[in-house]
Amino acid sequence: MPRTALRVRRWAAIAVLGGLLAGCGADASGEGADAAEPAAGSRTSTEVRPIEAATRITDAKGVTVSLDKPPQKIVCLVALCDDILVELGLTPTATNSAVLAHPRFLGEEKAAKVPVVPGGFLSPEVEAILSHRPDLVIGLEDTHGKLAPALKGATAFWPVQPGSWQDSVGYLRDLAALTGRTAQGEKAEKAFRTRLAEAEETRSDKTALIIFGSDENFGVATPETDVAAGLFPKISRYPWKSRGVDGSYSLEEILARDVDVLFVETLSFGAPDGKLSDKLAKNPLWSRIPAVRNGKVIEVDSEVWAKGRGTRSLGVVLDEATAALR
To answer: Which CB contacts under 8 angstroms, 24+ apart, belong to 157-164?
Structure first.
């Protein structure tokens, strides 16, 4: 896969910028698809602890955010931030994510009214960020942490790094506390936990797979490296393990696993140039995969599936995945 494609998916999968996505491969052990399939684990609790408003929080990663008062203007440099704000009934002051245009978020018309931070995901412009006079800026730690010195003294910066749905819930709760939107935070957490618990109760025996890419050189999203993929062992058979920065899965291996439902995230760079599934169809092995033969290849919104990572995005993932896995 081209390095650019790997970087984009790595942003969505909690990775170190500039490296290759472990989702194209794996964990430190180097185990591959022939390793034991991850267990579904215990059922997710639907209980939600009360959230208390606060002007100072320390998140699960040990990062402390301290404010004088609840933030009114929040600039989002990572889609998780946009996701949480929408869950809390708020709108970003500015963003560099396209997830807001999804109909389950703001929709295209309302999203178009939110200013976009120039410079893109990798290099958002500090002057542009500060021009919005934000009370709080939220970015991805391994990508935007370098901005902290430039923002210091002008605004508060919160570097986040979600690695699981539990992390995402934790960030939701923390921002709900900081903004004073505690009831909204509890409601959003409850809705997500309930949706996940229901999906676990009707866990499918079908084999699922999430692949991503911009051309025939695709990657596999694995539970160890991807928040959305981390849900799949709970709702289906998902025998894919991370193989480290140099690992990858071939179509031959995927064919051997008899994939029943295949979810495809097409990543585009510049102008869209077609669906990944159409490009992979050029390979004669593609048509032999059960999911392809049976019309169970689903092109999904990569802004939500790959980049969102908050409870609203993961709720969309669960709804679309469980419907396809029936």
So the answer is: 158/59, 158/63, 158/65, 159/63, 160/59, 160/61, 160/63, 160/78, 160/80, 160/81, 161/14, 161/61, 162/14, 162/80, 162/227, 162/309, 163/14, 163/227, 164/227, 164/230
Residue 244, both tokens: 């480290």
Cα–Cα distance, 101 to 110 (Å, whole number) = 8
Report the alpha-carbon distance of residue 81 to residue 202 in Å, rounded: 30
Q: Which class for 278: exposed (0-12), middle (13-18), buried (19 or more C-beta within 10 A)?
A: exposed
C-alpha 55: how far from chain center: 27
DSSP code at position 116: B
Percentages helix, strand, coil for the chain (3-state, rounded to 5) are 40, 15, 50
3-state secondary structure 218-255: CEECCCCCCCCHHHHHHHCECCCCCCCCCCCCCHHHHH
Q: Nearest to residue 75, comparing CAs of 155, 10, 36, 129? A: 129
- CA-CA distance, 153 to 147, in Å (whole number)? 12
CB 293, CB 287: distance < 8 Å? yes
Sheet with 261-266: strands ordered across? 219-220, 208-213, 261-266, 297-300
204 half-sphere exposure, CB direction, 13 A CA radius: 21
Tens-place pLDDT, residues 271-310: 667 899 999 999 999 999 999 999 999 999 999 999 999 9
Residue of 239, 222, 217 lying closest to 283 (CA atoms) = 217
> Which segments of the chain are extended strands (E)?
56-58, 64-66, 74-76, 94-95, 136-140, 156-160, 208-213, 219-220, 261-266, 297-300
The DSSP symbol for 17 reads T
- 44-68 confidence digits (pLDDT tens): 999 999 999 999 999 999 999 999 9
Q: Which tokens belong to 116?
A: 């976009």
Mapped onto helix, strand or coil, the DSSP state of residue 108 is helix
**Cα(53)–Cα(58) distance, rounded to whole angstroms?**
13
